[in-house]
């Protein structure tokens, strides 16, 4: 199996970097091929824009989708984007490792998706959802939060962390990935000293052990469910009686 780990944390000695390394070691120990992309260390530019496209299809107006498709077709995408696309196509399993900042992923990871999930190459009108280019591949989010598990629970003060990750998981599903339930780590805080730091280190050591154990059998890891194309009518509305897997795609309440 080929595994691609994408790390999005600016500190090389962060717990996120530690988990990414633990995943790398765990997969290597299982005999898999592993490649890691550290977006901050590579100084990846997350800003999509006209400056990335030297041979514009439309010189007077920038249309990201059209320029992506044009440059994909003419094999003129930026070298770093071509490399990341090749890595995605090489991988059987994708791991996105990042901290939960302001109720979402760091901007560099969102920008990576904006620029690497190119229209025409990674998706188009015929290759989406269960028919996506990445069909047959798995994706896993491994995410840390400074808040407690209770604060990030559905009835917690910070809101349902798992639910707020749905847009990223849906984007991965959109290009064809089978998405696994995210591995969520709570209470990862900086600035601790003394006994508080010891308690946190002990807790995170247990988390690391559980993470490596889980990676040992991804086939048993629960999946995130999404509606299939057959669940929608010609207007792309959820059919009556179709299953509901998320509050983001649900039946309208009766008027």
UniProtKB/TrEMBL annotation:
Residues 1-203 form the Flavodoxin-like fold domain. Its EC number is 1.-.-.-, 1.6.99.-. It holds the Pfam family Flavodoxin_2. GO terms for molecular function: oxidoreductase activity. It comes from the Bacteria. Keywords: Oxidoreductase. Belongs to the NAD(P)H dehydrogenase (quinone) family. This is NAD(P)H-dependent oxidoreductase.
